[in-house]
Amino acid sequence: xxxxxxxxxxxxVIIVGxxxxxxxxxxxxxxxxxxxxxxxxxxxxxxxxMTKYCETSKMLGGAGDKSGLIDAxxxxxxxxxxxxxxxxxxxxTTGENGEFRIISVRARDFPAFTFITIxxxxxxxxxxxxxxxxVTASITIVQIKxxxxxxxxHTVAVSDAAGW
Length: 164
Prior knowledge:
This protein is of the alpha+beta class. It has helices at about 5-55, 75-85; strands spanning about 90-95, 100-110, 115-125, 130-145, 150-160. The chain is built from two helices and five strands, in the order H-H-E-E-E-E-E. A hairpin with a 3-residue loop joins strand 1 (about 90-95) and strand 2. The N and C termini lie far apart (about 55 Å). The mean pLDDT is about 90.
């Protein structure tokens, strides 16, 4: 075999190796992004359950009283997580995309309104550069006592982290 043929063979092996590693890198990046998007979508499915818990009567396992007002003392991490199915350790649930945890519940009862803030965090299963996709939702529920009207707002943020 001549020097040109050996050089051509070596160059071909190098080019194929670079293309394979580039393909693997692109696949892993796309897999990570897909996991992050799926976590974000799954997070938004839990938000209505948290609001519904606050609206539902105590007799049916919720935090509402007979008059239709939210009882802030019943909005706790333990009660909320048990009601919406976050029964794992650390008030969590594990799904196909990752693990979700209720991080904090803050309920305050004022004379004119009830104010509740719930923070839920999700940690994705895919890893890129040693970091997992993290999705954090902050749900704010406000009930005006005079009208019994409940307003819910939420934000979902996406970031990267090494773990919990």
